[in-house]
Specification:
The chain is of the alpha/beta class. It has helices at about 10-25, 40-45, 55-60, 115-125, 140-150, 160-170, 170-175, 200-210, 220-225, 235, and strands at about 50, 65-75, 85, 85-90, 105-110, 135, 155-160, 175-180, 185, 190-195, 225-230, 250. Strands 8-4-7-5-6-12 form a 6-stranded mixed sheet. The chain has a 4-stranded antiparallel sheet with strand order 1-10-2-11. Strands 3-9 form a two-stranded antiparallel sheet. Helix 1 (about 10-25) packs across helix 8 (about 200-210) and helix 1 crosses helix 9 (about 220-225). It is globular, with a radius of gyration of 18 Å. The termini are close together.
Length: about 260
């Protein structure tokens, strides 16, 4: 889900190490990751071996089709072990010091089913009519661009994504500031299809643990902001706030070509 072009080399290196370890365990793993299909197609693929999903779609839509494997521990500011949050961003010259000051504003939302981009933000609002309107951008990077360009006033951005954008695209965040953070929630889980047997799940966990402890992959781990994994249960993901029943009126978003993953 954090597949920026700038760090795909690191994702590929990590996967190659995991796949090699799975092969030793007798599990056939594709040598390269699949990036072509839309994520919702991947999550429903009957041949799925390993993927990553946003917690909200997992809880609301895919729980009966996906099985939890592990939850990464990210090192981005705002993360706490296997949990993360969103940062609330506005333009640096915007009036207002916290969320309450942006009543009646236009928010940029990467997608209504995104935990970090909408569900967590909605849970922090005092009432459903707080925002005047919303611009649905399709990706966190495009929400960042919309706020920077003045096309929206505020957005909730996954803290891992924001840290990666600050590192690799400083110009994209230079005109922005953080005015708040959403509540902690379980980070985006690594998943497999629901019918995968216990032995394969344990092999996936073992391969991930081993790869994430391999000194040869230290540079890749640092690039991905990953320091390890933890095993969370379905009950941990039940803590995700409920899907909001209403949304602000939607504006027509400017046409953008996103250079990042869809909507963590």
């Amino acid at each position: 889900m954090y597949d920026l072009p700038e760090i795909r080399w690191a994702t590929d290196a990590l996967w190659a190490a995991v796949a090699a370890r799975l092969a030793v365990a007798g599990i056939a793993a594709p040598p390269a990751l699949s990036r072509g299909p839309a994520v919702h197609q991947l999550w429903a693929d009957p041949a799925l071996l390993l993927s990553q999903t946003c917690g909200n779609p997992y809880v609301r839509t895919y729980r009966d089709r996906l099985r939890l494997v592990a939850t990464p521990r990210y090192t981005a500011p705002g993360c706490d072990g296997p949990r993360y949050r969103s940062v609330l961003i506005v333009r640096a010259d915007a009036r207002g010091e916290d969320l309450a000051d942006f009543r009646g504003a236009v928010c940029a939302v990467n997608g209504w089913d995104s935990l970090s981009g909408w569900v967590a933000l909605a849970a922090a609002l005092p009432d459903p009519q707080f925002f005047r309107a919303a611009s649905v951008t399709g990706a966190h990077a495009d929400s960042v661009a919309a706020v920077a360009a003045g096309e929206a006033d505020i957005a909730a951005i996954d803290c891992v994504t924001y840290a990666l954008l600050q590192r690799h695209r400083p110009a994209a965040t230079a005109a922005l500031r953080v005015i708040g953070r959403t509540a902690l929630a379980p980070s985006l889980p690594l998943v497999t299809r629901r019918d995968v047997d216990d032995g394969t799940v344990e092999a996936l966990r073992s391969a991930l643990r081993d790869a994430l402890a391999d000194p040869a992959l230290a540079e890749a781990r640092a690039a991905l902001l990953i320091e390890g994994i933890e095993i969370l249960g379905e009950a941990d993901y039940d803590a995700i706030p409920p899907q909001p029943v209403s949304t602000p009126p939607q504006l027509s978003a400017p046409s953008r070509r996103s250079a990042t993953a869809p909507a963590p």
